[in-house]
Specification:
342 residues, Rossmann fold, six-stranded parallel beta sheet, 12 strands
């Protein structure tokens, strides 16, 4: 048996007021001269009847659908970056909006279909997101519409939300220098393509700038850098093995992401060396496994949830060209200590 949905007229009748008066109260219209008692009766009636506003009707009246689109490449099915969606969902809900989510898997034809489908549903704005922090080409159909880039930038003047990778690089390197490491700090994860092509990565060059700035402030520089084809555990493992073959072993190592650090830990363990007694290790991202390593890995956390939240706030604020950098807090764990006496 179906139940008829309560209408505004039902609420007004139960409260003993006109539809106009009930509507003004429910919509929070300022300047009404209706009494506190009238407000109480209307809200009580709405609660008793289970009244929900007719969103379609309100959209026609306000020209706002109270829906936002979240379109990404592979964010939704990626455990690590999925926090961006969680933050966006929470912020949208707090602002009485619904978030529609589409993932393209990098398929350009499906991306165009997804964008058009969202626009057909009269979304109030679009969050265009990327899994890896990089420069994107924004689809032409989004230009001129309320759009915020998330974990991405572009050559167009659109507002964007990015992690502050340069500040994180400074914090990570400073953690080593403040512990007493100076002339034997190594870097694992140099990658010319990531550092020079913004369409591949914006993070690599920014992290490197922060690292070099912190070391310069401490009156030192990197003793050695190891290039890696990619930032995966097997590359961190191979890079650490190459460092251990050098005549002078580093006292501290910066890894360009946690996955490289996971591999570096394995190579150190195989060589009978301990973190941090024999070598301190610090990294970026704060992957969930970082806290489970023994000892726990000190790492600058990607603030994905805060980034998703900030993207919604920027979109709803109507900002045109803001560039928002979200801090990456350093998670200090047990992988850093002062260098052992030589």
């Amino acid at each position: 048996m179906s139940h008829r949905r309560a209408t505004l007229a039902d609420v007004a009748k139960r409260a003993g007021l006109s539809k106009t008066a009930a509507s003004m109260i429910l919509n929070g219209r300022e300047g009404t001269r209706l009494s506190a008692e009238a407000h109480r009766r209307v809200f009580a009636a709405a609660a008793e009847l289970g009244y929900r506003p007719n969103v379609a009707a309100r959209s026609l009246r306000t020209q706002k659908s109270l829906t936002l689109a979240f379109i990404s490449d592979i964010v939704a099915t990626t455990r690590f970056a999925g926090d961006m969606i969680r933050g966006a969902l929470d912020a949208a809900r707090e602002h009485d909006h619904v978030l529609l989510i589409a993932e393209t898997q990098g398929d350009e034809s499906f991306e165009q279909y997804a964008i058009e489908a969202m626009l057909d549903r009269q979304v109030d704005g679009v969050i265009y997101a990327a899994m890896a922090t990089r420069q994107l080409t924004v689809p032409a159909t989004l230009l001129g519409r309320p759009t915020v880039l998330l974990n991405a930038a572009s050559t167009t003047e659109l507002p964007c939300v990015l992690p502050d990778d340069e500040q994180a690089g400074y914090a990570v390197a400073s953690a080593l220098t403040e512990a007493g490491h100076r002339d034997r700090i190594a870097l694992i994860g140099r990658n010319r393509l990531k550092e020079r092509d913004p369409e591949v990565s914006l993070a690599a060059s920014a992290r490197l700038r922060g690292i070099e700035r912190a070391l310069a402030a401490a009156g030192t520089r990197l003793a050695v850098s190891v290039s890696c084809h990619d930032w995966l555990p097997e590359h961190g493992y191979a890079a650490m093995r190459s460092l251990l073959r050098k005549p002078t072993r580093p006292t501290g190592v910066i890894c360009m992401n946690d996955r490289l650090a996971f591999g570096a830990y394995q190579a150190l363990a195989e060589a009978g060396l301990r973190v941090p007694q024999d070598m301190s290790v610090v990294s970026f991202d704060d992957d969930v496994i970082a806290a489970w390593l023994r000892p726990g890995l000190s790492t600058a956390a990607l603030p994905h949830e805060q980034m998703g939240r900030r993207a919604v706030e920027l979109l709803l604020s109507g900002a045109k060209t803001d560039r928002c950098l979200v801090p990456m807090p350093l998670r200090r764990r047990a992988s850093i200590d002062s260098p052992a006496p030589q």
